[in-house]
Amino acid sequence: MPTYRDEVVVLRTHKLGEADRILTLLSRRNGKIRAVAKGVRRTSSKFGSRLEPFMVADVQLAKGRNLDIVQQAESLGSYGADIVANYDVYTTASAMVETADRLNEAEATPQQYLLLVGGLRSLARGEHPERSVLDSYLLRAMALSGWAPGLTECARCGTVGDHDYFLPQLGGVICSTCAPAGSPRVARDTVDMLRALMAGEWETIDAAPGRTTAAASGLVAAYAQFHLERGIRSLPHLESYR
């Protein structure tokens, strides 16, 4: 039975039988992987705690007909305990792994893996507000999937400038000429915040006032869910998105 090694993030798990689990993994080199971890739910399991959601591990897998089989697992990032200790951090991380799980195989690239690992690490360490970590992750994940929002030029006509409208269904900021009648205006500092989130300019992001952060979050959520074609189930449970 051929085997291979890869670095993975555990996205979700499902019970199988009395002692096994089915894992959905985002890997660094092999895209998304579905695998069985046999005996992982037994207290005697050597690597059960390393294969919980939000954990990052170096795994050896054996190729299977329908599901691969986890043979070994070594921890690379034990983020789960710190994440589940705080409800808002947990729901933020849940939204991130849910988004990663929506990726199709062509989109599950090494860059997506590294982006998710960086986001989970930041959440576990409390480096930035969880809402901003999620917003930055969602924008970048969309961009890596080919859905980068237009933030410096009109998404319809390409005119460069500071535009006053942002419409998810049209691809980003829209100039006054292209904006449909009745479109709501967006404050300039909100668009600046979106640009900072996309670029990872954390000094700017962390210093932004709450109203700007909240306004940008609403636009990011609308944009991501429009392009994912269905809602992110974890978002309504996150206090900052209610």
From TrEMBL:
Keyword set, alphabetical order: DNA damage, DNA recombination, DNA repair
This protein's name: DNA repair protein RecO
InterPro entries xrefs: ARFGAP/RecO, DNA_rep/recomb_RecO_N, NA-bd_OB-fold, RecO, RecO_C
Organism: Microbacterium proteolyticum
GO biological processes: DNA recombination; double-strand break repair
Gene name per UniProt: recO
PANTHER family assigned: DNA REPAIR PROTEIN RECO
Function: Involved in DNA repair and RecF pathway recombination.
NCBIfam families given in the database record: reco
